[in-house]
Amino acid sequence: MQSAVHIAGAEPSRLSLGDFQFDLPPELIAQEPAVGRSQARLLVWDRGSAARTHTHVADLARFVRPGDVFVFNDTKVIPARLYGRTSAGAAVELLVIWRRSPHPSPLPEGEGAEWECLGRPSKRLRPGVELRFADAASAVVCAAHGDGRYDVTFDTDDVLALLAAHGEVPLPPYIKRPDGPLPFDRERYQTVYASQPGAIAAPTAGLHFTPALLNGLRAVGAATVFVTLHVGPGTFLPVRGDDLNDHVMDAEWCEIPEATAARITETRRDGRRIVAVGTTTTRALESSVDAAGTLRAGARWADQFIRPGHRFRVIDALFTNFHLPGSTLLALVSAFAGREQTLAVYEDAVRQRYRFYSYGDAMLIQ
Q: Where in the chain is the domain with CATH 2.40.10.240?
């Protein structure tokens, strides 16, 4: 069996946030996607030889090995950002995250009036404050937890319908446009295979894939399977403090289908590669391995912070976007490929004018 176990470097006693910084010109943070999903640029990095190939995502099949299994995150972004007003007429903003009642669940399906939200401004969102949204629904702030987190009770059980009618695509804050999200964002900030509603941010590595590209991977002998991880604040919130070892990730709900777990287990047994598409897919897989190294099917909360020193036990290659300095996502890539090596490749990507983050370009690390 091919071993997916590797440690890119022993975890130091302290992981300073400053060790994960690099100079990123603001103009390289992509504000819009490439004209076509697979027209984005692709940097292929072979860790063994240190070779780097500059190409495009459309050419990904050139780097596939027969028997590779590509694992995708099929979560679906919901239009989770709501703008409303208090009963006094003051403007407020909510980002609707998880359903809390009547049955606590991370999933938006079904009835449930009480939700966990991120909200601002905090001075207007105190327990007992009433909110209105476009004359369509009302809500009451029932608890404040600090750090901009609130429990909010809506006057409708069908919060998803409210979001569909009046919510906005929750683009990341580093996408700065005078007019906010545009109509194309509802399509382009969503993967073509998204099927499980529940994310407040896209699994952005998957945004590059088209039906034609997926078929092209299969045509050269690769298989495609899916997991679900509902992307929540844990993926994009900044590191708290200077030592990464002290940072605690927010939990995110993930599920590994039985068929996916079986296919991955068989592939590893046969000595073939598991290619994770995205950091969220990686977290779902690496958080679902038991002490014996067996990938467990089923649903669970994933709160593992993958950083240098992590012992990878599932994935052999990683397809991912370029991430921001000092982020938990860059820490994950550094854990997989080595911090110094990763920063060197990132510096090369900056020189080559690759575009960064959600709507940016991609890299394949193998």
A: 80-166
The pLDDT value recorded for residue 147 is: 86
Residues 6+ apart with CB under 8 A from 351: none
pLDDT at 111 over 70: no
Under DSSP, the state recorded for 134 is T
**Residue 34 structure tokens:** 């490439």
Q: For the chain, give every residue range classified as CATH 3.40.1780.10.
A: 17-76+186-365
The more confidently predicted of residues 174 and 46 is 46
How does residue 10 score in pLDDT terms, banded at 50, 70 and 90? very low
Q: What is the secondary structure of 194-212 as a DSSP string?
A: --EEEESS--GGGGG--HH
DSSP classification of residue 240: P
Class of domain 80-166: mainly beta
Calpha distance 143→138 (Å, rounded):
16
Model-level pTM? 0.92
Query: Which residues 6+ apart lie within 8 Å of 217 measured at CB?
Result: 60, 61, 64, 68, 70, 224
Q: Quick one: which of 279, 253, 139, 145 has its CA closest to 199? A: 253
The predicted pLDDT at position 3 comes to 45
Q: Which residues are CB-neighbours of 106 under 8 A, at least 6 positions away? A: 98, 99, 198, 230, 232, 252, 253, 301
User: Which residues, 6+ apart, have CB-to-CB distance to 130 below 8 Å?
Assistant: 86, 87, 138, 139, 140
Tokens 């010109």 appear where?
25
Structure tokens at 143: 């608890």
What whole-number distance in Å separates Cα of residue 341 and Cα of residue 307?
Answer: 14
Domain at 17-76+186-365, CATH homologous superfamily: QueA-like (3.40.1780.10)
Question: CA end-to-end span of the chain, whole Å?
Answer: 18
* 180-204: pLDDT as tens digits: 888 899 999 999 999 999 999 999 9
pLDDT at 114: 83
pLDDT class of 12 with cuts at 50, 70, 90: low
